[in-house]
Amino acid sequence: MHMTCGRRAYPSDLSDEEWERLRPLIPEPSTDGRPAEVPRRELINAMLSLVRSGCAWRLLPHDLPAWKTVYHYFRLWQRAGLWQKIMDVLREEVRAQMGRERTPSAAIIDAQSIKSSAVRGPEKGYDGAKKNQGAQTSPLRG
User: Fold this and answer.
1) What b/e sequence results for 96-133 when a residue is b if at least 16 CB atoms lie within 10 Å of its CB, and e otherwise?
2) Which residues, in sequence order, are CB contacts of 40 under 8 Å at separation 6+?
3) Alpha-carbon distance 72 to 103, whole Å?
4) Which of 115, 92, 116, 114 minimizes the C-alpha distance to 104?
């Protein structure tokens, strides 16, 4: 198993190629105040580990940065719109590699009709376009 950031790599860790693609999009540490102790790549690796495993923040493995640090940067970058920016850049690159326009020209919206509250009693929903009454989603599809 290969090493990354001074530890054995997890399957969810960024490859060197992936990190080189993401690095320009991740903000550099501020030069004001205390110097950063955790490398940016390791923060992203911890976030990817969390997403891949589905664990709670407090259950991040001990060889990754402290969960509070990872959570702090995740929220900071989320509020700054960084995740949306990353997704936009990556989507545009993939579309360009496929020979398509960089931005999509159409979208598909999927919606279901269902009663909004079970408290309302015997009232039934109505969807005029489908000409159906009542819940439009099967209980088995849940």
Assistant:
1) eeeeeeeeeeeeeeeeebeeeeeeeeeeeeeeeeeeee
2) 23, 26, 28, 29
3) 31
4) 92
Q: In this structure, which amino acid lies at residue 77?
A: W
Q: Where do the domains of the chain lie? A: 3-97
pLDDT in tens, 19-41: 999 999 999 988 888 888 999 99
Taking alpha carbons only, the member of 3, 1, 28 closest to residue 16 is 3
For the entire predicted model, the pTM comes to 0.69
Please give the mean pLDDT across all residues of the chain. 83
Residue whose token pair is 């598909």:
108
Sequence-distant (≥ 6) Cβ neighbours of residue 19 within 8 angstroms: 41, 44
Letter for the amino acid at 17?
E
